[in-house]
Design brief:
The chain is α/β, with parallel strands linked by helices and 315 residues long. It contains 11 helices and 11 strands. It has a 7-stranded parallel beta sheet, sandwiched between helices. Helix 3 packs parallel to helix 4. It starts with a strand and ends with a helix.
Length: 315
């Protein structure tokens, strides 16, 4: 395969590029991003490229036959229009090239956030559950809208295998995101009525994505390990203290801190806190049944690996 990976310098993109470089069925990887990766990887040619710009020249010159679309704005930013332009505009652009060059397969990294955070969510969420990503949380809203876009593309281009992975919260030794940073505070302010979370270890997600590419498997797959952890368990495992605050108090105060850009208090707007309070657990039964994959880590073991990495770091 000759694979292009968008977002190749990001957390998931870089790990996937490294894993693909070890596969004998991969001939060439073209990694694109707006910043260079921290290191070089086997079989990978990196190209500095904005995902919103046409990629037709790259597809033509590199003979691309497979796409992994991992470019996405993960940490919330105040410029929602820019975030949407990168997320949705970038996807439209990559799909246009996929159609023009009639690639074999497109693998898109979505998220269980596409289901949204609602009190009446299915328990558990399956691939048949409606996509209701909350419109006031740009990340979840865009994941939902991009999946609608991909569904239309798939119907119009049946010769291209479309694979979509919907991982829950990804965790591992090298994770860096606003939620992880928040949990690492000595006193962790959380809503008083939190719901448990599930995780998937970074190694499991990369192995699953690699498997779907190797086998050429199309379809939509939730990716979530067994088991859950409460926020109090997570915080205490890290050696910190939870401070529960009523929803009616924490929501407006956090939103004010976000608008004032008080980064030492918060790294995300208040709508994102719904993921802490609403039931939001997905089943990976379809993935296991159709691929035969067996998770290396359950949710607790995945989070524990993150905790071990944190405690090894010098103070």
């Amino acid at each position: 395969m000759r694979i292009i990976v968008t977002g190749a310098s990001g957390y998931i993109g870089a790990k996937l590029v490294e894993a693909l470089g070890r596969q004998d069925w991969v001939e060439q990887i073209v990694g694109t991003d707006i910043k260079a990766p921290s290191k070089k990887y086997p079989k990978c040619k990196f190209v500095l490229h904005d995902v919103r710009r046409s990629m037709d020249d790259l597809f033509a010159s590199e003979g691309i036959d497979t796409i992994v679309h991992a470019a996405y704005v993960l940490p919330p930013i105040h410029n929602r229009a820019l975030m949407e332009d990168i997320n949705k505009g970038g996807t439209q652009n990559i799909l246009a090239s996929a159609k023009k060059f009639n690639v074999r397969q497109v693998l898109y990294t979505s998220s269980t956030t596409a289901y949204g955070f609602h009190p009446d969510n299915d328990a558990p969420l399956t691939e048949e559950s409606p996509l209701r990503g909350n419109d006031d949380m740009t990340y979840a809203k865009n994941k939902k809208e991009i999946e609608w876009m991909i569904a239309d593309f798939s119907r119009d281009n049946p010769s291209i295998r479309m694979s979509v992975v919907r991982p829950c919260i990804v965790i591992g030794p090298e994770i860096q995101n606003p939620i992880a940073e928040h949990l690492l505070k000595k006193i962790v302010v959380i809503p008083a009525n939190t719901s448990p979370w599930q995780f998937v270890h970074e190694d499991d997600l990369i192995a699953i994505m690699t498997l779907l590419l190797e086998k050429g498997m199309a379809g939509i797959f939730n990716v979530a390990a067994e088991g859950v952890l409460t926020f109090e368990e997570m915080i205490r495992m890290l050696g910190n203290r939870p401070l529960p605050v009523p929803w009616s108090v924490i929501y407006p105060l956090n939103q004010l801190a976000w608008r004032l850009r008080l980064r030492f208090l918060t790294r995300f707007p208040s709508p994102a806190m719904r993921m802490m309070v609403e039931p939001w657990l997905a089943s990976s039964e379809k993935l296991v049944r159709e691929t035969g994959y067996r998770f290396q880590y359950d949710s607790r073991a995945a989070f524990s690996d993150f905790v071990r990495a944190v405690k090894k770091k010098p103070i």
